[in-house]
Each structure stands twice: as C-alpha cells, then as structure tokens.
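Task: sequence design from structure.
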C-alpha cells in the first residue's frame, strides 16, 4: 500500500479504514470511529516500555476497548475518535494522521457495491486470477483520498475486498462466521469464490483442503467453488490435501476425498496425479505414515484404479516413486491394489533397478527438493514439489506471520491449560488413592467381621444342639423319676442348686424299671457324666458367645464409623448401604477402575446427603 492513502479493510470481521504512516498501519473503525491508540503511539516512535506506561496512565483510565485476539495488526487498545485526536496532538503526530482525522465518513458510501470499479476495469481484475501473479500495481494507479467526487477511489477495489474475505475464511474455521462472510459476498455480482489469494495461485479451496478445514470446504463447494481449479503448478485442491499431514492428523481425508473425488483423474503440469503427490509426501521426514494413510485410502476406491500406472513427465509411476524412496508400506499398498511392477520410466529404470540402488542420478534429482521442503512449515506459500517462481509479497509475509502468531498463541494457551489440568488430575488422583486405601481397609474389616459372624453362627448351632440333647435327657429323666415315684425336679429346683450341691443324692434312689441293677447303675453314671459335661460345655459356650458378640459389636461399630467418615454419612444410614458397597468392592478387578470408584462415591454422596448429624454408636449388651 502507498503511504498516506486511505483504504478499507476487514480484520477479524470488523470493517476499518486504514492508512500507512511511517510504515505503520493506522486504523479507524467504520462502525463507531474508534481508533487504535497503540498504533498512534507507534507512529510517534515511542518504544514499547514507554507505550505501556502511557496506555496505563492516560488511556486505560477512560473509555477504551482492549483487543488481544484475532488478526495481529488489529490488536491493541481502541479509544473514541476525540480522544484519539487529543492523543495524536499530545505526542506530535496529529499532522501525520490528519488525512485519517479530517475526511468525512458521511460522504463515503457504505455499500461496498458502490465502490466497485467500472465493468471493464473489473473484468481486468478478474482475468488476473487465471494467470501467474504480476508485479504490484504502481502506486500511481491506486485509489487516493481526494474530493467527494473521487470517494470511490478512496476505498480498496472489490477484488481486494473479496481476497480479504477469502483470507478471513482461511484464518477461521467457525462455520457460522464463514457462512456469514459468504452470504454477504453473494450480494456482490463480481464476487469470485475461486479468486487466487497467494503467489502460487492457490484459492481458498486449496487452503481449506490442505488445512483439513472440512466445514470450510463444504461451504465453499456449496457456494459454487470449482473443485477442479488449479494453481500455477496445475495442482488441484485434492492434490494439495495429500501434500501435508493435516488431513492425516484429523483423520478427515475420507470426507475431503468424497467432496473432491471427481478430480482424481487430473494431473498437474508435471503430469503427476494425486497418487504421485501422496507418494512424494512420504519423502519428507516424519510424513511416511501420513503418505501411507493417503495411498491406502486412495487405492481402496475403484475410481483410483485407472490412475495406478499413470506416469508423470519423467515416466515415473506412484509405485516407482515409492520404490525410489524405499517406502515398503507405500509400495506394498500399491502392489496389492494391482500396480504394474515392470513399468519403466523415461530413463529405462523400473522398481527393481531402484531396489538395486543403480539409479543414483534420478534419486538425487528428487532428493534435494524433498530435503529442502522437510524444513518448511506444514503449509507454506510454495508448492511442495516445485520451485518458487515468484518472490513473496508483503501481503503474503503478513499472512504467514499472522498464522505463526496464532499458532504460537494457541500453543501457549493450551500448554498452560494442559499444565493446569494435569495438576488438577494429580490432585484428584491423590484423593482417589486415599479413598481407595480407606476402602481397602474397610473391605478387610468386612471380611474379618464375616469370619466372626460365621464363627458365631457355628457356636450358636452347637448351643442349639446341646439344648436339644439336654432337653431330651431331661425328658427321659422326668419319665424315670415319675416311674420310680420320686419328686420330679423342676427347672426352678435346679436353678437353686449351687456348684457344691450334690445332685446325685437326689437321683440315687430312682427306681428304674429293670431287673439288672448293675446295668442301670452304669447307665445312670454315664448319664450323670454326660449331663455334667454338657453343663460345663454349655457354660463355656455361653461365655464364648458373649465374648464373640461383644467383639462383633465393637468391630461392626468401627466399620460403620469408617464408612460414615469416607462417605460423609450419618452412622444410622450405613446399614442400608453395606450390601451395595460390599457388592461393588467384590466386583472390582485386581486393577481397580478409578473412574468407576469415583462414580460410585458420587452416587453414595448423592444418596446419602442427609442433614442430621451422625448418631452415637449403640452400646453392646451381652445376650
């Protein structure tokens, strides 16, 4: 742009008036006349440290708007028009910025169509998109600010506006914003969706396909973009999509291919097909897997079978390129798809010659190009396989610098977010480990309690067996005493006996209904011994039962307290949760699923969000 000229531009979807002063872009927003205070201070040659202090003391204290994201040149602190003039006068640059301050916005038509060149002039602009880029238009032919009658010449040409819109599409992948851009441009008869936007003749569709912007590709095709358009090297958007790894990283190549597959038969100026370009991508360090991914998907389509053996200007097929690069993955995929293995190039060499490494001259012909390109960015403004025919323009440099800033900012932002998330994850992991340890202790306590419960059940069963045996013996004793005419001892009588009472004295004279007195005496002695043994055993069992029940109650209360502390629940609610908690612990595999434990604990907390305080543990009483 010529210094001192005022033209319109669009940055981050915001229309502005812009002029270059001392090599610095100075902007004035068309919607509210706000100007960028940072740019004004730059024109005044104030270094960055002093600019920051001036902004803090003089600008940020009043009405202002700080823009940090979006297009690089648009960033800065924006202030009202009057404050902008005062700031420029204060630092001695009001005369330099006078054209921006003094021209009348009311007299400038806001409808972009009113600033279009005449039809003949527009046709000339459109014709330029089909040819290699020509040198910049001399400053004398650019629009300058003048009288109200020449206001049309003060704004950029419609071609520049369209290019700005298409570059905005490239710099953003927000479907709603992109659709809005294109719908606004639909009202312009001269809008060219296939306009060349860089020095290599690439269109917005080339850029979108290369950067795996699927939404952008679909919108451009929907708006009538020509999927068969080529850049100055004859490369189609489909070819560009396999020359970088973005579609491999996003796993989006199948969708791109479906949108652009009708151009699969096309070749570039070196007669290379999309298969040639995919194979050559494997020559760049770190892109072998991406190249294999592209080749495998392409050869799986029937439409690509027709170009398997296509030869480029050197006579090489995609298979011979893969063999020359010693890429077994690419070669195997092409051979399985049916590629001919004995096709010779114009030097008379086939893939066997490349395997034997007798083609050093031809290999060196391609290797320097591939080596040099391996150090370039993912998507540069040059073709991957051809020399750069034109020097980069200032516009191209600005675009590359802006993309670099965006990538760096995203890298820094997501890097800090990742660090923060990792710290949060570490904290959650530590909490989860602590809860897991508590649950493990609880599980062991439950197992111990189950063992004690089993022992208690066995002791109770033994007690019942003894009671049954005593009852049977007592009934038999009663029948014998009744038969002998003796007073039958009752349970109350037995309760009054102490350990020194001779029970045998009460039972010696029982008349047994038998004539064999010695046999009866022997049976009686045995019965007495059994009764005494049973009573002693019963007493010992009663004592053991009391001890076990006391231990069981104490252990049970300890487990309840532990579960209540872990789950933040009152103790009286724990009984309802023991069964599901036990089932959850028993169902866990050896390698504990932490996510499942977290979900379980959340569920326990939601179910147990009670307001009353935990109850005191009940005191155990022996039975």
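Answer:
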């Amino acid at each position: 742009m010529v210094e001192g000229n005022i033209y319109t531009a669009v940055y981050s979807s915001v229309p502005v008036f812009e002029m270059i002063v001392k090599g610095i872009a100075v902007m004035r927003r068309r919607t509210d006349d706000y100007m960028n205070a940072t740019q004004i201070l730059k024109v005044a040659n104030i270094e960055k440290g002093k600019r920051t202090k001036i902004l803090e003391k003089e600008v940020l204290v009043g009405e202002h708007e700080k823009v940090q994201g979006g297009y690089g040149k648009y960033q800065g602190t924006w202030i009202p028009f009057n404050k902008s003039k005062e700031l420029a006068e204060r630092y001695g640059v009001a005369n330099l910025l006078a054209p921006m301050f003094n021209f009348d916005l009311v007299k400038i038509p806001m409808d972009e169509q009113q600033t279009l060149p005449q039809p003949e002039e527009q046709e000339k602009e459109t014709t330029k998109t089909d040819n290699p880029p020509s040198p910049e238009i001399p400053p004398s032919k650019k629009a300058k600010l003048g009288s109200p009658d020449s206001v049309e010449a003060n704004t950029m040409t419609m071609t520049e506006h369209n290019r700005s819109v298409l570059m905005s599409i490239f710099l953003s992948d927000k479907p709603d914003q992109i659709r809005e851009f294109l719908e606004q441009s639909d009202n312009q008869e001269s809008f060219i969706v296939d306009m060349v936007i860089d020095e290599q003749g690439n269109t917005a569709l080339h850029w979108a396909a290369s950067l795996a912007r699927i939404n952008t590709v679909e919108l451009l095709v929907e708006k009538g973009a020509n999927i068969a358009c080529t850049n100055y090297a004859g490369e189609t958007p489909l070819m560009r999509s396999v020359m970088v790894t973005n579609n491999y990283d996003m796993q989006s190549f199948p969708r791109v291919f479906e949108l652009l597959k009708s151009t699969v038969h096309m070749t570039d100026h070196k007669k290379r097909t999309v298969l040639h370009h995919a194979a050559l991508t494997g020559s760049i360090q770190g892109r072998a897997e991406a190249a294999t991914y592209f080749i495998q998907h392409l050869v799986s389509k029937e439409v690509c079978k027709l170009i398997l053996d296509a030869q480029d200007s050197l006579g090489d097929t995609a298979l011979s390129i893969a063999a020359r690069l010693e890429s077994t993955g690419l070669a195997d995929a092409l051979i399985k798809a049916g590629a001919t293995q004995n096709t010779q190039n114009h030097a008379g060499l086939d893939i066997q010659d490349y395997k034997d490494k007798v083609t050093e001259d031809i290999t060196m012909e391609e290797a320097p190009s591939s080596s040099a390109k391996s150090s370039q960015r993912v998507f540069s403004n040059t073709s991957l396989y051809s020399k750069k025919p034109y020097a980069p323009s200032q516009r191209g440099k600005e675009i590359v610098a802006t993309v670099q800033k965006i990538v760096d900012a995203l890298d820094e932002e997501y890097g800090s977010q990742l660090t923060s998330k990792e710290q949060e994850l570490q904290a959650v992991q530590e909490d989860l480990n602590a809860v897991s340890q508590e649950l493990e202790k609880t599980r062991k306590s439950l197992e111990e309690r189950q063992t004690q419960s089993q022992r208690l059940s066995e002791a109770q069963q033994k007690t019942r067996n003894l009671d049954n045996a005593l009852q049977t013996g007592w009934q038999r004793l009663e029948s014998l005493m009744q038969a002998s005419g003796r007073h039958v001892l009752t349970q109350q009588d037995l309760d009054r006996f102490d350990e020194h009472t001779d029970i045998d004295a009460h039972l010696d004279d029982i008349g047994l209904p038998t004539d064999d007195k010695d046999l009866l005496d022997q049976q009686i002695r045995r019965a007495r011994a059994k009764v005494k043994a049973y009573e002693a055993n019963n007493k010992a069992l009663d004592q053991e039962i009391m001890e076990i029940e006391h231990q069981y109650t104490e252990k049970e209360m300890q487990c309840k307290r532990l579960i209540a502390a872990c789950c933040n629940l009152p103790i009286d609610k724990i009984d309802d949760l023991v069964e599901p908690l036990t089932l959850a612990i028993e169902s866990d595999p050896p390698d504990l699923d932490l996510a499942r434990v977290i979900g379980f604990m959340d569920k326990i907390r939601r179910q147990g969000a009670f307001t009353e305080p935990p109850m005191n543990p009940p005191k155990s009483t022996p039975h």
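The chain has a mean pLDDT of 75.
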